[in-house]
Amino acid sequence: MSAVRSVAILGSTGSIGRQALDVIARAPDRFSVAALAGGSNTDLLAAQVAGFRPRYAASAATDPDLASAMETARCLALPPEEIAVQPDVDIVLVATAGAAGLLPTLAALRAGKPVAIANKEVLVMAGHLVREAAEVGGGELRPVDSEHSAIWQCLWGEEGHAIRRILLTASGGAFRDLTREQLASVTPEQALRHPTWNMGRKITVDSATLMNKGMETIEAIWLFDVPMSAVEVVLHRESIVHSLVEFSDGSVKAQLGVPDMRLPIQLALSYPERMPEPPMPLLDLASVGTLHFTRPDLERFPCLRLAMEAGARGGTAPAVMAAADEVAVERFLRGEIGFLDIPALIEAVLERHDPLPSPSLEDVLAADAEARRLAAAAAPGVHA
């Protein structure tokens, strides 16, 4: 029996954080909760603190009920980047959205901690700095995204064998069958109805624009040390094949499963072991019947093109793209801009940016801040 692993969950009130707590609750002999960090949903965070009684907690907002729950649980308040380096934390799950996950990820890796990474923006913004932190501190990145978890699993036992291509699968999101003319009038409520996955608001909109898949191409180059030219995207509406790897001899490996994030979460926490019980329903291929694969339409979904171009340019370009996207999605969800304004706004911000080739952390954060300023000020349908 393995020792109980003490887990810090940064972003515990979000979709991934809640599912991680479900995984942990199912296996108390293997996992315990060392720390919880949440955003503005203080009611849920207070309930999580009361239920799991972590040693540390952090919140982006103050609340008397949360303070009372922390006092009852004898829970110490620390910022996320300090939680990430505590000696009694065995593994850090970074499940925050946006740039908030960057500093804790760097801190944990420099301290030699395994980091289960579920935050796309961290590697998109500063993949070179994340790799450097892991190399210096001895920390380990474990992908939680279902696509990158699939690639990771396909590579087990394949050390020394050259990767020819990584094939990232994409469901196509809520609007995969709409024309560009139809996309012009879609609403935030429609964008949040994902056909196969239950995710947070930001990533669900990114799925509808295919920006999430573009970000995943950038993540892949840092996680698996491949050039952007070796990463391709294929649409797969059933979300059963989570991704594929083609090797130098033409062999292709894929990882399949029902669309349920609890499996990649559990795997990242239990690695190198596989748990004896699945956290989700088992795959029945006969019931699924047919699997479909097509190429993405970059005219209808230009965010995928923008992300891959930013990833190929490198430097601060991906950070600017990710920051502009975060602001654009927020503005779309508030009803300030239309769906097709999201890629237009991102492209306008990128056009005004001259990427720095080897940015420091300060350079990345400055580029992020400037991109947010430009994206927030841009009028719909015009340049930033």
Q: Can you give keywords for this protein?
A:
four-stranded mixed sheet, 11 strands, Rossmann fold, 384 residues, globular, alpha/beta
Explain this structure.
The protein has 384 residues and is α/β, with parallel strands linked by helices. α2 (42-52) links the parallel β2 (31-38) and β3 (56-59). The chain starts with a strand and ends in a 7-residue tail after the last helix. The protein contains 17 helices and eleven strands. 48% of the residues are buried. α6 runs parallel beside α11, α11 (211-224) runs parallel beside α14 (302-313) and α15 (317-333) runs parallel beside α17 (361-377). It folds into two domains: 5-143, NAD(P)-binding Rossmann-like Domain (Rossmann fold, 3-Layer(aba) Sandwich); 149-259 and 280-313, no CATH class. The protein has helices spanning 15-26, 42-52, 64-72, 80-83, 102-110, 120-137, 146-155, 180-183, 188-191, 201-209, 211-224, 262-270, 285-288, 302-313, 317-333, 341-351, 361-377; strands at residues 5-10, 31-38, 56-59, 76-77, 91-94, 114-117, 140-143, 163-170, 231-235, 241-247, 252-256. The strands form two sheets. Strands 4-3-2-1-5-6-7 form a seven-stranded parallel sheet, with helices on both faces. A four-stranded mixed sheet has the order 9-8-10-11, with helices on one face. The longest helix is centred in the middle third of the chain and has 18 residues, at 120-137.
